[in-house]
Amino acid sequence: MREKGHWILVGALLASCLLIGCGGGGGGGTQPPPITPPPEPFNLGGKVMDASGKGLAGAAVVIVVKDTGQQVAATTSSSKGDYGFFVSPGNYRVRATLAGYQPGQADVNLYAGDKRLSVNITLTQ
Q1: Burial of 47 per CB tally in 10 Å (0-12, 13-18, 19+)
Q2: What pTM did the predictor assign?
Q3: Contact (Cβ atoms closer than 8 angstroms) between residue 95 and residue 62
Q4: For an engineered disulfide with 27, which of 23, 39, 41, 46 has Cβ 3.0 to 4.6 Å away?
């Protein structure tokens, strides 16, 4: 009977080591490295408007990497001309097009630490 109790005690110790960790001498075991969260996405938005400042609805707005021209995201401006993207830090070009207007664009540099950036694009007829 004593042998059975011994194995129960050993099993309980092993189970507690698995649950709370068994360190070799004072350290409490090895800790996994902390998880670094990904960079926070940026809120890049603005308004597509005509020369008088009136918002233009339905404009196609795309954001591309400035150096490569690779498209990152696309959207359509709202009924008031508003648009918005969530993008990582980088150098971008925002382009807007709408039938009946000349295309417009703006270059944007987003840096770590920037939280919100507003970029308005004016389209002319």
Answers
A1: buried
A2: 0.66
A3: yes
A4: 23
pLDDT in tens, 2-26: 555 544 544 444 444 444 454 444 4
Distances (CA, A) of 9 to 3, 25, 28, 118, 121: 10, 21, 21, 65, 73
Beta bridge partners of 76: 60
Place of tokens 């670094």: 36
User: How far is Cα 105 from Cα 48, in angstroms, rounded to an integer?
Assistant: 10
CA dihedral 46, 79, 48, 63 (to 10 degrees): 70
20-39 tens-digit pLDDT = 454 444 455 566 666 655 55
Domain made up of 42-122: CATH architecture: Sandwich (2.60)
> Nearest Cα to 40, choosing from 92, 91, 87, 93?
87
**What does 9-63 look like in DSSP terms, one character per residue?**
HHHHHHHHHHHH---SSSS-SPPPPPPPPPPPPEEEEEEEE-TTS-B-TT-EEEE
Provide the percentage of residues in the chain whose pLDDT is more than 90: 52
